[in-house]
Write a structure and sequence with these properties.
Order of helices and strands of chain A: HHHHHHHH
Number of helices of chain A: 8
Strand content of chain B: 5-15%
Largest sheet of chain A: none
Oligomer: heterodimer
Number of strands of chain B: 6
Strand order of the largest sheet of chain B: 3-2-1-4-5-6
Order of helices and strands of chain B: HHEHEHEHHEHEHEHH
Structural class of chain A: mainly alpha
Largest sheet of chain B: 6 strands, parallel
Radius of gyration of chain B: 22 Å
Shape of chain A: extended
Shape of chain B: elongated
Largest interface: A-B, 57 and 63 residues
Distance between the termini of chain B: 20 Å
Distance between the termini of chain A: 16 Å
Number of strands of chain A: 0
């Protein structure tokens, strides 16, 4: 019974959503409208659940002194600081428990939450992403080696796109006459992106779509039960 | 002299650092050409009647800010110049703050624009594709108030806006999922609303198939280069254009290192064959 009820709910909800897609009138349209509301409420609660999970996982790691446990303290402290700032003084548009924090705004220029978000989080986050440039450079140097015909094709396409997708491409071949404009690097990059890339991407998308249909049917029909947890 | 892998990596990192930093200080002014997809977006943004309502969705976080924020400035500035009414939403939690940041800067440039009249930030809502679906039937159900808590019914900008079909077009600044794909699937495919957007350069190839005969996606700004192209088209040279010089040099350094790596590999192979 413990497993049968969730399976029945998944079956009816799945069938209902599929039917409503083809017959969006009453009662199907109204019922799926209600389901959309439920989903958004559950998604909101999922954020709270995620925060609780973050605290639980990191506190346990600190408690058991797992490798690099000191970093987990930084996570917990950062989390607590942002929550406290947000709750007590609010954000740019909203007041917190202690009011609008006017005196703080006068001294630091913005509310503590916004100050931390704009001056710490944004820069740290952008820096982490920017580091990718260095790793990509290192990986490209080691991986883009023309060993076989296929790897040579990949190498040529990559170099053409890398040049064509920057201003350098326009600079290097901008002098070409109109009759040879197809050799202009941005045009070559555009061609690669528009035809071979799109063809490959479409194939992947169609396969992924078929895979999603297959796995959705397995869930609706109760064949796939891993989402219920347990064994 | 053979360099150790560790030293090679250090040299590469140092050159990338110099290659990115110097063009940001000393402008090279490399040429920028507009591509077909950017032109499509520009024509769409500039082809609506004055006072049209448009929806900008900030579906990214600070990690993608260097690529997507310049786009947000360029498109929002252009739309405000055209006297459109901009309604902003966010499918990513940090998107709402980045939208606020965009309009804070634009308000300094255009002191005449007014929150709630010319633009409004409705904020973040969890739920991804389902949120868009719900906006397709009634936007007020999803957003009963804006970011500052003003009820949506009291905002002059929201007069006559009921659902997605009341917008001239939808534009998503997208760093992943939920983002452009979800807007295409629901706003365009289900509600027949013109959908366009901007994505990071790394995710653009996966979105390109949506630019097709059915115009599921009406053009695309892919990466910083597209943002720079848009700045050029709209006549406001800004941060995207200055960033392009740095990106161009970084790409050139990577290509040079790829060439060095290949020469090294083939020399070693030739030597081994000789032995």
């Amino acid at each position: 019974m413990k497993r049968r009820i969730p399976l029945l709910i998944a079956f009816f909800v799945g069938i209902l959503v599929i039917v409503a897609e083809f017959i969006p009138h009453k009662p199907f349209g109204t019922l799926t409208g209600g389901l959309e509301d439920w989903f958004m409420i559950i998604a909101g609660f999922a954020i709270i659940l995620g925060q609780m999970n973050l605290i639980k996982v990191h506190v346990l790691k600190i408690k058991h002194k797992l490798p690099n446990w000191q970093y987990f303290i930084v996570t917990i402290v950062s989390f607590a600081v942002m929550v406290i700032f947000g709750l007590f003084w609010g954000t740019e548009d909203n007041a917190g428990i202690l009011g609008a924090g006017t005196s703080l705004v006068q001294s630091i220029g913005s509310k503590p939450f916004d100050y931390m978000f704009n001056n710490v989080y944004q820069h740290l986050s952008a820096s982490m992403f920017s580091l990718l440039a260095f790793f990509i450079a290192s990986a490209a140097y080691r991986a883009f080696i023309g060993r076989t015909t296929e790897s040579n094709l990949l190498l040529i396409a990559a170099v053409l796109v890398m040049l064509g997708r920057t201003s350098l491409g326009s600079f290097l071949t901008g002098w070409l006459p109109d009759a040879l404009s197809f050799l202009h690097l941005p045009n070559l990059a555009e061609f690669i992106m528009k035809y071979p890339n799109t063809a490959g991407q479409r194939a992947i998308m169609i396969c992924a779509g078929l895979g999603i249909i297959g796995s959705s049917l397995r869930i609706i029909l109760g064949i796939e039960r891993s989402y219920l947890g347990g064994e | 002299m053979k360099m150790s892998p560790e030293n090679t990596r250090r040299t590469l990192f140092t050159l990338i650092l110099i290659g990115v930093a110097l063009p940001l200080i000393f402008k090279l002014g490399l040429p920028i050409e507009s591509s077909e997809n950017v032109q499509m977006v520009y024509d769409l943004v500039n082809g609506q009647p004055e006072g049209s309502h448009i929806l900008l969705s900030f579906d990214y976080d600070p990690a993608s800010k260097p690529e997507l924020h310049p786009m947000a400035y360029a498109v929002a500035r252009n739309a405000l110049e055209r006297k459109y009414k901009i309604v902003c939403t966010a499918l990513w939690p940090m998107g709402a703050s980045l939208c606020a940041d965009t309009f804070k800067r634009l308000k300094e440039e255009m002191p005449g624009i007014e929150d709630g009249v010319d633009y409004v930030n409705l904020g973040f809502k969890a739920g991804g594709i389902v949120t868009i679906q719900k906006m397709g039937s009634d936007i007020r159900d999803v957003y009963p108030a804006d970011m500052s808590g003003t009820p949506i019914g009291e905002l002059p900008i929201m007069d006559g806006i009921r659902n997605l079909t009341d917008f001239a077009f939808v534009y998503s600044f997208s760093a992943g999922a939920p983002g452009i794909k979800e807007w295409v699937m629901v706003a365009h495919d289900k509600n027949k609303v013109i959908t366009t957007g901007g994505a990071t350069a790394v995710s653009a190839p996966a979105i390109l198939p949506y630019i097709n005969e059915q115009k599921q996606l009406h053009g695309l700004l892919g990466g910083l280069k597209a943002a720079a192209e848009y700045e050029k088209l709209s006549g406001h040279i800004d941060i995207a254009t200055s960033g392009m010089d740095a990106q161009s040099i970084a790409h050139l350094i990577i290509i040079l290192f790829i060439a060095v790596g290949n020469i090294q590999y083939h020399l070693i192979r030739k030597r081994k064959r000789g032995e």
